[in-house]
Design a protein that fits this description.
By secondary structure, this protein is mostly helical. Helices cover about 70% and strands about 5% of the residues. It contains 17 helices and 5 strands. A 3-stranded antiparallel β-sheet has the order 2-1-3. A two-stranded antiparallel sheet has the order 4-5. The two termini are about 15 Å apart.
């Protein structure tokens, strides 16, 4: 096997690893942030559902392979250059890993598109097809989060009205581990409130409550024969799996495309290698993104998280099916933002940092792709 082919494989493996590190946990961030699951259980659930999405990617999202081979964006003779997939993969991998170490949830899709454009632009005198870049790549990336914000906001308000009609109330529980110690009907109370007003019923030292206890917002009431809390926790759990599945479904073919350029690798082998790398990256490096997405943007209960996850999963699966390169990161953050906006409860400082990372991801990918393609040469 030629040395350049080995480097193409290693670079693609690194990109898939970086994708897993930055993206795998995003689907279960609401489970972790709402304390429905602890970190290890949430990580196990995202690993399982991500693996499922990787396995079905080529059956349900094969059109994305064609899109991310760069066909139509750059001339065919550029795509067939040995160093082209190497420069594209390395440029995108550097961009995503940099963001991961800065604790910023960025889009692998943006990084890949930027790197594709940068490497393609420097490799040919006629440049890239800017019209193709806008219509096939840029417009879907902008439309995804806007659509998710609008749909999530509307659906959440409809669910909120339905909850009121069914007399299902929000409440706050004081818990240690999975054990509920005390409950208050308001969803805005704090640990100090419980200590001051429920000290007798709690029956625990204040130091223990201060160090071990946490407040969790949930729901009281009944659907026909089912506890509202149990039903919404279950829907939250399933919808988080849907997001992880849809993200893997959408991202796997984009990365696999780098190995399929020039028919250098077998399709099944490529899917297996990319899937293993994505899962490994998620298992080792998810904690940084988990904290940012699950706890710093906004806090949510199970009903709010279900709404955000459901809309994210539907949009990403639909886009994957028709070969539209949306960013799961942007769609998911858009849904989380809509929930926070509807409740007037969002961390604007963290949100502004995330948006800044989004804005800079594509030009950074472009720059790294351009530099690497220039350094490697047009071979």
């Amino acid at each position: 096997m030629e040395t350049v082919v080995i480097f193409i494989f290693l670079t693609t493996f690194l990109l898939a690893y970086a994708n897993g590190a930055n993206d795998n946990f995003k689907g279960v961030a609401t489970l972790y942030g709402s304390k429905t699951l602890d970190y290890k259980k949430a990580l196990a659930w995202t690993t399982f559902t991500t693996a499922f999405g990787c396995g079905l990617a080529m059956f349900l999202a094969g059109e994305l392979v064609i899109v991310f081979k760069g066909k139509g964006l750059v001339p065919d003779d550029v795509i067939l250059m040995q160093n082209f997939p190497l420069a594209v993969g390395a440029g995108a991998a550097i961009t995503v890993m940099l963001a991961t170490f800065l604790n910023l949830p960025v889009s692998t899709t943006h990084a890949l598109i930027g790197s594709l454009a940068g490497a393609g632009w420097i490799a040919t005198e006629i440049g890239i097809n800017w019209g193709k870049l806008s219509k096939a790549y840029f417009y879907p990336l902008v439309a995804g989060p806007i659509l998710s914000i609008i749909l999530t906001y509307i659906i959440y308000l409809l669910f909120k009205k339905l909850r009121a009609d069914l007399n299902i109330q929000q409440e706050t529980s004081l818990s240690i581990g999975e054990k509920i110690i005390a409950t208050a009907q308001s969803h805005t109370v704090t640990k100090n409130y419980f200590v001051n007003n429920f000290s007798t019923s709690i029956g625990l030292p204040e130091t223990l409550v201060a160090n071990k206890a946490y407040c969790r917002s949930s729901y009281s009431g009944q659907f026909p024969g089912i506890s509202a809390r149990q039903l919404l926790d279950g829907l939250h759990y399933l919808s988080s799996g849907l997001v992880c599945f849809s993200r893997a479904l959408n991202d796997t073919p984009k990365i696999v495309a780098l190995l399929l350029i020039g028919s250098r690798f077998d399709l099944n082998f490529s899917i297996l290698a990319v899937g293993i790398a994505m899962l490994t990256g998620g298992l080792i490096h998810s904690k940084r993104i988990a904290i940012t997405m699950g706890k710093k943007v906004t806090t949510m209960n199970s009903g709010q998280a279900f709404t955000a996850n459901f809309i994210t999963g539907i949009i990403v699966i639909g886009a994957s099916k028709i070969g539209m390169p949306v960013s799961t990161t942007h769609v998911s953050c858009g849904s989380i933002f809509a929930i926070g906006a509807a409740n007037k409860k969002i961390n604007l400082k963290i949100l502004s940092q995330i948006i800044l990372a989004w804005v800079t991801t594509l030009p950074l990918g472009f720059m790294f792709g351009l530099i690497l393609m220039s350094a490697l040469g047009s071979n």
